[in-house]
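Handout for the seminar on molecular recognition.
Each group receives one record of this type.
Step one: identify the two inputs.
Step two: read the structure output and locate the region that could contact FE2/S2 (inorganic) cluster.
Step three: write two sentences on what you found, then compare them with the reference statements printed after the record.
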Amino acid sequence: MGAKMFGARVSRLEDPKLLTGRGGYTDDMHLPEMLEAAFVRSPHSHARIKDINISDALKHKGVCKIYTASDLPDYLRNTTVPFQVPNPAISQPFQQRLLEDREVCFAGEPIALVVADTRYNAEDAATLVQVDYDILPGAADCKSALEDSAPLCHVDSPNNEGAKYKVGYGDVASAFANAHLTHSEEFWIHRGGGFAIENRGVVAQYDELDDVVTIWSATQSPFLVKQNVVDMLGWESDRVRVIAPDVGGGFGPKTIYYVEEALIPLVAKDLGKPVKWIEDRRENFLATNMERDQYWDMEIAVDADGKLLGVRGQMIHDTGAYMPWGIISPYISATTLPGPYVLPSYELETFVALTNKVAVTPVRGAGRPQAVFAMERLMDRAADKLGLDRAEIRRRNLIQTEQMPYALGLIFRDGKPMTYDSGDYPKCQEEALRLGDYEGFRHRQEQARAEGRHIGIGIANYVEGTGLGPFEGATVRIQPSGQICIYTGGGDSGQGHWTTLAQVCADKFGVGVEKIDVQKGDTGKIASGVGTFASRIAVNAGSSVHLASNEVRQKAIKVAAHMLEAAEEDMDIENGSVVVRGSDLSVSLSDVARAVQGMPGFSLPGGVEPGLEATHYFSPSQSSYCNGTAVVEVEVDPDTGHVDILNYSMAHDSGTLINPFVVDGQVQGAVAQGVGNALLEWMVYDDNSNPVSTTFAEYLLPSAPETPNVDVTHVESPTPINPLGVKGAGEGGTIPAAAAIISAIEDALSPWNVRIAAAPLTPSMIVNQVRAEKAVA
Amino acid sequence: MSDRRTICVNINGKAYEREVETRLHLADFIRHECLLTGTHVGCEHGVCGACTILLDGKTARSCLMLAVQADGKEILTVEGIAPNETELHPLQQAFQDNHGLQCGFCTPGMLTTLLEFLDENPDPTEREVREAISGNLCRCTGYQGIVAAALDAAKRLQAGT
Ligand code: FES
Ligand code: FES
């Protein structure tokens, strides 16, 4: 039997193809007679459309057809994106129409679709479509949007409040009445978009013979796209196949379905030719969902020892003009705040504001970085006021291992009471402090100050609900050739599912991962699926692969026992063959697979069902909660505001690891996005809600020089929620990053007593704050 | 003046003669006319670096050039880096061994950029590698695996393996 694959640092099976330019991304498809599409999008954040004139555009060379709302079949004229995650807290669940011809509510909203022989001609013609607008004022900043005097996001609605809800538990009022110390403060946290380097894209082809439309989409969730298409267009489910080919990064926004994913198949079927639409970067800034602003007005109460008594406050969340994902992000924010701490009482009222901007839906971290920022800043404030060390106040409040499973008193986004299933929070914090040499830091700081340098250290903890249901399935099949294949529904946008799912399966058949083929993200290959988001694939698909592999293994042994006339309990599977222990009797999996194909007129060996395969749809009873601690050391130049991250340490507990090599990569990449959130990424709008940062020269992504190496250590607390003990690992790195980095910057600037309550923190903000404090002093 | 020209570009040792619109950018030419789709397009405004190719041995952003400007020139794209069908170039192998890629979308631009860099600077420091790829955005890896791969590749190339 070969080396054990599960848990090993196996290098990725995906890589050779991608390293040699042989990947197949959506825009790499070139189908015969394929047409290309371009959209006419609103240049205004808010306007009434008075007239659309396509006559000049139609005359442009190469144009096949132009679609506006009035060119859609009658039954689709008012069709909107289906609202699939309702919640009674939502009072105004506005959803986007396929094409708008009355009122556009964000800059980038699609008005017309031009199909031509080439993209170049389609774009030219799109510029010739004349739209007559009555420009309206836009609801911009989400806080002012809730004021009575604010312009309305949708002209016919009574106000801009999309939803309102309260979460909490415990007796907050008496916690504050009896507190030794309280502190209140307002925080502003902005997060930007996913900004995968590959933009979105859709190709669709109608096969008249089979009456099937095949859709290739750069999506994380082909089954959600299919559901969307079926719901919006009213097509039969078995007439639609959605494939997520190689996807160049997702990070959340490619989870959600978009009108383009329904329009392109619609026009491909109408025109009887394949149609391709590839989003360009400007469209991506305008029309791909993102996260944005949250304001947290919060208060904390602690006793004389720094033990938490309560936290209360209000939060305002910018949701954009439409709510395709309901209140998932702000709800996750609200339930993330207590984190790893024993927090006896908590109350948060959330207001979700409609603004004239593209919709807000989860981006890696999904509302959690904001909550962690608010909570961790409050912890820092309480520590500072009490004269306690910032790590020490956290240590005093961490939930202890013997308190696990720990019921929080809140209901999570999966509708289940939040119960942390497992985890060793004190150990995680300790490990991160050790890794970042927290103990030696004050000495380093003194030395640096003597040299005129300003260094600081910051710490942040988080808990994250991962591995959300409802399910993700897997079929494991051994072909008559002996090839082992896994089929699963979620797409792969860089996570390495081929490798990790193969690792779960390989040991059951005593083979190396290279012997296993994984086909993912194709609704034609497995009956049901959900998608790759919410750090859920290792948990759900991984568990399904485990269960299905076990079943196939058992079946193979049963059939082989019959073939070899041996007892099942004496048999094992090694190197892809079923063997009788202590003998040289064996039969290859290929022969077993052939045997269960059956022979005409003969019964199947051992009375089994045909086919050497099994399908499982693992459905977790609740989320599994991963956690971690980030410790960050920075150097700040108070004159230029430049921040250098000197050391980034992270202790991370995502349960059992299938492949530490891959998990490390997930953590490192996630941290980089957190660095962007802390220091760089800012989607800027003008006062009328028009976006002004629509290139990578204006909206800054972290590049190599400012991104730190991350020292990752893993604490492994297996979850009892699934058979593998795994928890999600894709988002943890992002969640505490901004909180820890900002805390470190504040520490570095402590000679000036600078207090930071916002992220991202730009160099000019740092310089201004230092100057202001100097002026006061 | 006609807006179409016939050009001949040598890509990865093979001549591609095509009649193209003069406004066609080089990345689109490589991807959609020559069907070499390994070169990627991430921004079309010169910032992300995904479209980086080697033009007469020097890195160039193929989204910022017109195809007609490449007439008569030699181009190397990601498809031309490996020595043969089955083996990887040491830089590619180092990327696999150091988890230098996740989604693989930035990878072609990273590889071409680093090929040029390691040629000019065979024994770089980590800082130098980070500066060298500062014009290539990767949203997946946090650059750590890419930097490790570049340093590892430098060693392998120097050792001639
Ligand atoms: S596509 Fe050329 S630099 Fe981004
Ligand atoms: S590997 Fe995905 S962008 Fe670099």
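Reference statements: The pocket of FE2/S2 (inorganic) cluster (ligand 1) is lined by residues B 41-44, 46-51, 61, 63 (CB under 6 Å). Residues 31-136+200-278 of chain A form a domain with the Aldehyde Oxidoreductase; domain 3 fold (CATH 3.90.1170.50).
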